[in-house]
Structure formats: structure tokens, C-alpha cells
Amino acid sequence: MIEKLDSLYKEFEEKITGLGNQADILNLKSEYLGKKGHISEVLKSLKNATNEERKLIGPKANEIKNEITNSVAKKLTFIETEEINKKLANEKIDITLTDAVRSNNNYSGGFHPRTLIQREIEDIFLSMGFDILDGPHIEDEFHNFEALNIPGDHPARDMQDTFWFHDPNVECDEKKHLLRTHTSTVQVHGMQARKPPFKFIAPGTVFRCERTDASHEMVFNQLEGMMVGENISVSHLIYFMKTILKEIFKKEVEVRLRPGFFPFVEPGFELDIKCLICSGKGCSVCKQVGWLELLPCGMVHPNVLKAGGIDPEKYNGFAFGLGLDRLVMMKYGIDDIRHLQSGDLRFNSQFRTF
Ligand code: FA5
């Protein structure tokens, strides 16, 4: 019987060597160790054996049972490991991909042209001692209009078509919410949080419910600037305007300053740039007039200073609201503002800086 057990084990070892999947291995195990398996059959026949024989065969049968159990476990682990390795090889993440693609000159990352220009302007103003502020996109009527000297019935409200949030529970006008139509809202936050003298810029996204064309978007970007102190004059304003344009374009650009109406400044100006897309000949960007409105500005209205908690008898200041996307268009010769938010990599990748 001992020989029978040895030969069963040998037979089992030969069979398991050729197997490659879990189910076959488990079947083989029950063929040998199952209730009606070969080893169990041998053990059943022990009832006819002598005590001496039992003492020899019992431990041997247990030893072989253990060998078979271990052998099955080892084989199953081996197959599982092989499967995992195969999976890992197939699903391998190629961490060299970025470099490969970059060297292929197609889709490497980079900054959006607006980010590039915005950062340049921020550096220029930081070097002149300005702070950089941020403001909320969702505003109340007070910060977008009232505090900027645009009361409820003022026709200037129509200058900027507004996206309103309709909240039937809000009765008080000042608490009505909207998507800010200009970055001038940050003038109000800035004044409320500071004591003069101060100067800051505030770049950011603004929203207007208007038809888009080559120079108009519904979601676009402005860069507000404000300086408040004693004896600030129009010549300070013009100095800073000229400085931005000189530093950004790094060449002479033709501009014109003309009177402009904004309720929050007095006097107010429109600074137009000669269209760099058509060199002033007329195109869809400048609407055939050769000039593009770029940088409205003026001396802060006393009512605005008052709303910001500043004494207009003692202090005055200037403010401007640069059209950031239009500046980017002029700088890079982009003939349609809608390219800027297209998300088109063929467009964006032209401005890569690394
Ligand atoms: C204003 O928004 C004023 N808050 C600017 C200001 C600030 C004036 C401080 C005086 C003092 P305006 O609506 O003109 O003004 O917009 C400012 C600039 O944003 C424009 O000159 C133009 O360059 C840009 N702009 C206006 N509308 C759009 C638009 N739909 N798409 C892209 N750029 C626009």
C-alpha cells in the first residue's frame, strides 16, 4: 500500500506539471484528495489492514496528502503571479511619453498667451509698488453698480448687459446677485479694505450677455488698476498707461486719448490703440475704423471714493480698466478673440515658451 501511495503521488506530480489554469488544478486536487479521490480510496481499504500496517500507512497517507496540498498551493500561486505580471506588462504606463511627445514638437504644455501677458503686466506693476488683488466673480448689485456711481435707474447700466441671478427671496436691490460685468468691482473691495495712499491692479474674468464677434466675447478678461492718494493727477494716469504699453509691445504703438463717459470717473477717457491687425486700414477686429478701444480710464469720481470709505476732500485718484484679451490680440496679431477660449491646441501651442 505504501508503494501504491508513492506511485499515486508520482502520477499526481506528473499531471500537475502540465496544467496551466486554476480550474484544472483544483479538479486534479479533488481527483486525488476528494471524498472519492485516489488517496481516500487507499485509506478506506485500511479497514482490512493489520494494526502494524495501519501504523505505517496512516502517517504516509497524511504525508502525501500534505505534499499534494502544498504542491497545489504552490502551483496556484505561480499561475496567479504569472497572470499579474502579464497584466502589468500589457497595462504598463509609459512614463517617457511626455518627453517623447515633446521632442515630437506637437503637444507639450505651455502657458496660454493671456497668462503670459497677464504675468508680464503683473511684474511691471509689482516693480512699481502696486499690489495685485483678486475679486469674486459673483457680485451683488452694490459692488457692480451702486458703489460705482451707477444707481438703479441710470442709463449706464445698459452699457454692460448683465447676467443676473434671480432669487425670488431677495427683495432688497442691493443684495441682488449677478456675474460681475467688469473688474471695477474690485475698486470697491480694494478701497473698503485699505487706507490711502494705495495702488493696486486686479486682473480677472468678467461676464456680459452680448453677441460675440471678432473683438467681443461673453466671457472675457480685464485688468483693473487704481491709485489713490493726495494730489494724484491726469499726468500720473498717462504715465502709467504709457509705461504698460511700452513694456508690453516693446515698440512704439500709436494710441489716441479721447473723452469717454463712465459714471465712476470724472473726467473719463477712452484710450484706443491703432489696430495692429490691419495697421489702421480697417478690418473685422476694429470694425473697419482702424482703432480699437483698449484702455478706458479716468480720475476716480468723488462719489466712488465716498462709497469706498475715502474722504474725497482729502484724496483723489485714477482708475483704468484694460481689455486684457484685446491687448493679447494686438500683441500677437490674433485676428479673432474667440480663438483665445477655443481650447484648440493648434492655436495654444504657438505660444509655448518651453
Ligand atoms: C469698463 O468695463 C470699465 N469698467 C473700465 C473702466 C475702469 C473705465 C476704470 C474707467 C475707469 P468697457 O465696458 O469699455 O469699460 O470695457 C473695458 C475694456 O474691456 C474695453 O475697452 C475693451 O478693451 C474690453 N471689452 C469690453 N467689452 C468686451 C467684450 N465683449 N469682449 C472683449 N473685450 C471687451
Write the layout of secondary structure elements.
Layout: H1 2-17, H2 22-33, H3 38-44, H4 51-90, H5 97-103, H6 113-127, E1 131-132, E2 138-140, H7 141-144, E3 164-165, E4 177-179, H8 185-192, E5 198-207, E6 219-229, H9 234-249, E7 255-259, E8 265-274, E9 291-293, E10 297-300, H10 302-307, E11 316-323, H11 324-332, H12 345-348
Parallel strand pairs: 1-5
Antiparallel strand pairs: 2-4, 3-4, 5-6, 6-11, 7-8, 8-9, 8-10, 10-11
Helix pairs in contact: 1-4, 2-4, 6-11
Bound molecules: adenosine-5'-[phenylalaninyl-phosphate].
Features:
three-stranded antiparallel beta sheet, magnesium ion binding, BirA Bifunctional Protein, domain 2, binds adenosine-5'-[phenylalaninyl-phosphate], eight-stranded mixed beta sheet, alpha+beta, 354 residues
Kindly describe this structure.
The protein is an alpha+beta fold and 354 residues long. The protein has two domains: 2-90, no CATH class; 113-351, Bira Bifunctional Protein, Domain 2 (BirA Bifunctional Protein, domain 2, 2-Layer Sandwich), CATH 3.30.930.10. It is built from twelve helices and eleven strands. Strands 1, 5, 6, 7, 8, 9, 10 and 11 form an eight-stranded mixed beta sheet that branches. The mean pLDDT is 90. Residues 160, 182, 184, 208, 210, 216-217, 220, 222, 262, 265, 268, 293-294, 296-298, 319-321, 323, 325-326, 337 line the site of adenosine-5'-[phenylalaninyl-phosphate] (FA5). It comes from Halobacteriovorax marinus. It is found in: Cytoplasm. Tetramer of two alpha and two beta subunits. Mg(2+) binds at residue 266.
